[in-house]
Amino acid sequence: MNKKALLTVAAGIVAVVFIPAFMFVPGEVEVGKAVPEFSLKGIDGKSYSISDFKGKVVVLEWSNPNCPYVQRVYKSGIMTAVQKKYADKVVWLTVNSTHPQHQDFETPEALTKSYKDWNATFLTMLLDPDSKVAKMFDAKTTPHMFIIDKEGKLVYAGGIDDDPRGNKAEKTNYVDAALTSMREGKAVANTVTRSYGCSIKSAP
Amino acid sequence: MRYRFLPFLVVFFSFQVSSQTVKGIQIVKAELLSDATDFSKPFTVGIKFEIQPDRYLYWKNPGDSGLPIEVEWLLPKGWTADETRHPVPQKMAYENTVSYGYKKEVVLLTTITPTGSSRGPMKAKLDWLVCEKSCVRGKAEVSLDIRTRSGNQLADAKRILDRWKGLLPFARSENPVTFQKAVASMQGAGLAVEIPFQPKLGVQIVDFFPVSIKGFLIDYRTVGVKNNRIVFSGADEGTGTGEIFLSGLLIGADGKGYECSVPVKFSSL
Question: Using the beta-carbon criterion (under 8 Å), do B217 and A196 form an inter-chain contact?
Answer without folding.
Answer: no
